[in-house]
Write a structure and sequence with these properties.
Blueprint: E1 9-11, H1 14-24, H2 27-30, H3 33-37, H4 56-68, H5 73-86, H6 96-103, E2 119-131, H7 135-141, E3 148-157, E4 162-170, H8 179-185, E5 190-194, H9 202-211, E6 214-216, H10 237-248, H11 250-257, H12 263-276, H13 285-305, E7 310-312
Parallel strand pairs: 2-5, 5-6
Antiparallel strand pairs: 1-7, 2-3, 3-4
Amino acid sequence: MAGTRKGTYKITNWSKYNESLVQRGSVTFWFNEDVISQWKHANAEPRRGHPFIFSDTAIECLLVLRELFQLPYRQAEGLGRSLAQLMQVEIEIPDYTSLAKRASSLGISLDVRKHNGAIDVVVDSTGLKVFGEGEWKMRKHGKSKRRTWRKLHLAVNPDTQEIVAETLTENSCDDASQVDPLLNQVPNSTNAFYGDGAYDKWKVYDTLEKRGTKAIIPPQRNAKISQHGNSGNCPLSRDLAIRQIRRHGRKNWKQNVGYHRRSLSETAMYRMKCCFGDHLKNRLTPNQQAETRVRCKILNKFTRLGLPIFKWI
């Protein structure tokens, strides 16, 4: 008996998508006249110590170039000098120590497009290596005490595929504890929250209920109903999901509630690791947090330049 032939996808907007891929590496797209006009620090607010010479825009621009081309701080300074010389622009370039110090306290916006009304969010986390041996030494000689990593939590708008919120934590931090910090960053109210089984905790349901957000979270396979069906209280969303899974099966429940949209958060993780790798260059936590935030902002820029549109064949 012949097996079923698998289908494939075809990109229908290849010309436009190809141009967006080329534009991602255009230096003039990131180092433009608007950035140059805001290069010097113009804030007159009093502060302790020597006043800043360079604006946050200048520091952020060089940090973006550093992440875009995967450079150390010193080489990022050299790239900035070369660009200023080639573009014949009379501006000073911050030295590498200034970049590292300012990055640790820089407030970086994710540059999310404005959206009217409530949005859905899909949430997931992934690990990023900080320091330690490579995979070969790990297999050959075992785990070392100095091998560690950080956990990156992302909230993605499934309609636009933009990253609307992010946090970076220690590897021991559980995913459910970051629901509030993530949703506090989302500029819009949230209509639905999509998460995997790691978010199947009562503190998550309580948080979402207070915000008026629908929870699309698969209960654990051994989950028990907490509130009797004849109770006069409002039915719990988790109990409703458990009953629907018992009645129709887990697979059908996922299809009915659209749970598979959550895979778009995994797509965002994959895109980030393809573009920037699976490790962090900085050693200090504040700089690592700035590093991941810059990466998220770059990915949002990539998204606005253009994404592929697929057609099932």
